[in-house]
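Form P-L/3: holo structure prediction, ligand glutamic acid.
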Amino acid sequence: MNSYAARVLDDLKARNGWESEFLQAVAEVFESLSEVLDSDSSYEEAGILERIVEPERVIEFRVPWRDDQNKPRVNRGYRVQFNSAIGPYKGGLRFAPNVTLSTMKFLGFEQIFKNSLTGLPMGGGKGGADFDPTGKSQYEVERFCQSFMTELCRHIGADTDVPAGDLGVGAREIGYMFGQYKRCRNIFEGVLTGKGQTWGGSIMRPEATGFGVIYFVREMLKHIGQDIEGKRIAISGFGNVAWGVVKKATELGAKVVTLSGPDGYILDEDGFNDEKIDYMLTMRASGRNKVQDYADKFHVPFYAGKRPWEVACDVAIPAALQNELNEDNAKDLIKGGCKMVCEAANMPCTPEAINAFIANKIVYAPGKAANAGGVATSGLEMTQNSIRLRWTKEEVDAKLLGIMQGIHHSCLEAAAKYGHPGNYMVGANVAGFLKVATAMKEQGHC
Ligand code: GLU
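OUTPUT (holo model):
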């Protein structure tokens, strides 16, 4: 690692030692920036790294609500407004029991570079709460969202900070939060993305992350002279991102054979059809968080407590959680003949797993490049809200495809320029960083 980057990282470790996910995300980016920093001292002179690891603002707040038994409950809410050098803060809200400030900071940090890669004017932010939606009634979720937004509404706005969904936050939660924002602020504006289709939401936003991932996979395959048709794909998760991945992969003639949940994974050798794809939505809406339901319904094998990476595949797409795929899983994939790993979740592969892929010449794409289609389409929703127009499915899809092809090109170009041809991780980190760092230099020491 470049000595300036190493110094800033050591200092960060000394001060934020317990924020392990955040430190992992920073270390990966800094590692990738070696040649950039070695060849140009202006980043150090402008103190870019010290500034870029420090969120511009962190908001932490109490979220009091009552459950269906009228019992008082309290959760912890967050919004990390990380970097606004190239646009208003933009990034999702995650509701999950394991959310901590470290989770929010790692996701917010990743979002800076992801948003930059889209080419759209969006800064980086992330938020959420340690609220567990599993088993909660619709009314509990509604009351929680209203309480959460009662505080958050004073910190966000269409030109300040535009949250969206993430794990545990889908169209229903965005609806409850938008309604509360409107009551509190008396403004109808594009303050959240992933909105409903009749009140400002962009067509295709629900599918966009998964579709974008498959567009990216197709570009990577094209680059090595291959086609997506006929490819056997193993994926994890069964939420919104996995749904979009399965839908587009199936449409393009690939065969997805797995899904996973906290309870284990299912193996469906026949691949997916419309009925099975729609059933993923039913499973998600049930709030049970159990992928075994799929196995029971379609009579396919279910492997309790196991990960899908032991299944032979051509392409693996982790679409669930950070650090869900470790070195042992990576070895299993390599043994099973996997040739390409494309991250649909944020930071799902551990650094050891990534090293194993690179050492074994597996084509590996980081989430900040491959899953940027979701936030990119959020950016398109913001544009439609600003100009008070609604684009057709064909218009949005064409723009999304163009953006994913643009990211693929930027990654390869930056990787080649800085001495790591074909390395999508270095390429994504460098290309994402250069745009933000240039803006920060031009805007002075702020
Ligand atoms: N949560 C998504 C992500 O990780 C989408 C964010 C957005 O649309 O603002 O990129």
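COMMENT: The chain has 18 helices and 13 strands.
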